Amino acid sequence: MSRNLLAERWERRRRARELEEQETAVARHARLPLVLVVEEVHLDLDCPADTAWRFVTDPANGRLLGGDPNGFEFVVPGSPRGEVGERLCAFTTRADGALIGQVEEVVRLEPGRLRVARSLSTEHAFSGTLAVVPLSDRTCRLSLELTAQVHPAESEAVREQMITGTGRVVRRASHHLAGTTPPLEPPPAPRPACRDASALVAVAARATVEVAVGPEVVWGFLLDAGNDRLDSEDPEAFGCTVPGTPSGQVGELRCVISHRANGTLVATLQEVVALDPQRSMVTRGRSTTHPAGTTLRLEASPTGTRLTVQVDLEEHVSSAEAARLRFVGGAEAHLARVKRCLEDQGDYRDQGEDQDQDAGPQGSRP
Questions:
Q1: Which terminal CB of the chain, N or C, has fewer other CB atoms within 10 Å?
Q2: How many helices (H) and strands (E) does the chain have?
Q3: In which domain, by residue range, is 139 found?
Q4: Does some domain include residue 162?
Q5: Do residues 228 and 359 share a domain?
Q6: Residue 9 covered by a domain
Q7: Coil, strand or helix at 286
């Protein structure tokens, strides 16, 4: 038996064991009791209530309120903007530098006064209530309350995070509304990107598929960020261009929202860094611990189009081969879904429009 076959068999067994261990841990964790943690903060502002409301509920100000220079927030395309059911996706920088997105949904809204949103990205119930109460024609009170269900052993750590988070938001809102510069926030405690301390090496994973449609059709399909959902195993995954970035151009940020194994939602990010029309697209991962890039390459073939995906990343020596096999498997599965969509579903553009306007946000529900 060849070394590659042995490595693939070992990797399949390792992944099966890992999945079984995760399922056991999740089941054990789910049986633990929960306690309620609530933190609330109030701050009086020297501005009219409607001014404060517009500022704190505008997704464009998420970066200012959170204090993360690389973070941002946007309304998920297709969800009802400014209404109950609106979904917001907020990306924040993890300690290892990766941008990870969480999704929340507005469940109660009294425009100009009160908004309640529940997280769709936490294992247990977590919600935030934002309220603005007028005190006079020129002053108001801003209140922020966070409520979480957590396991007892985690309650104090979560409470500290909630105290820090609520205080930061109202302080920064106060400064920005007053036209003053917020004080510098202490940086998060540094931590290693992962526990593996071995050296990083370059890893390349590649897969190819023949698609029975022309390159121009395949290229149009790949340019549509909504079709990035096919990169996920989740059949309800949703892909979109981050609003405000140039769709189908270098600099576009492409977001995929999908379910984790426990049913919660997570958002990941790719940035388009190079385009050669109808020939290749290169993206870099913005949600990875170590540098990673993906190249999609098209070539005309006798049967239609030869589509190749290559993932180039850096991985620790100890896990490099396992990572390569994992990404090869992921690339093959991705291309199989693309092929099926292009060949079996006819005009994918009709499918894509339905996905963006209706099925996307609905399909992302737990």
A1: N
A2: 8, 14
A3: 29-178
A4: yes
A5: yes
A6: no
A7: coil
**Strand stretches in the chain, DSSP E:** 35-45, 72-75, 87-93, 99-110, 114-119, 126-134, 140-150, 200-211, 238-241, 253-259, 265-276, 280-285, 292-301, 304-316
Q: Do 242 and 347 have their domain in common?
A: yes
Higher pLDDT, 73 or 348: 73
pLDDT above 70 (res 188): no
Measure the CA–CA gap between 144 and 162, rounded to whole angstroms.
Answer: 10
State the total domains in the chain: 2
Check: pTM over 0.70? Answer yes or no. Answer: yes
pLDDT per position as a tens digit, 152-175: 989 999 999 999 999 999 999 999
Q: What confidence score (pLDDT) does residue 349 get?
A: 39
- Structure confidence by residue, pLDDT tens digits, 18-60: 777 766 666 666 667 899 999 999 999 999 999 999 999 999 9
- Claim to verify: residue 325 and residue 290 sit in the same structural domain: yes
Residue at 307 is within a domain:
yes
- 190 within some domain: no
* Same domain for 206 and 118: no
Name the percent of the chain lying above pLDDT 90: 70
Cα→Cα distances 112→51, 53, 168, 173, 225, Å: 9, 6, 22, 16, 34
Domain match, 137 and 212 both: no
Same domain, 92 and 124: yes
CA 160, CA 163: separation in Å to the nearest integer?
5
Yes or no: say if 213 and 222 are a contact pair by the CB < 8 Å rule: no
Split at pLDDT 50, 70, 90, the class of 7 is: low
CATH value at residue 136: 3.30.530.20
Predicted local distance difference test score (pLDDT) of residue 25 = 67
User: Domain check: are 165 and 206 in the same one?
Assistant: no
Structure tokens at 134: 């007028």
Cα angle 288, 293, 297 (rounded to 5 degrees) comes to 145
Go through 100-131 and write b for each residue having 16 or more CB atoms within 10 A of its CB, e for each that does not.
bbbbbbbeebeeeeebbbebbbbbeebbbbbb
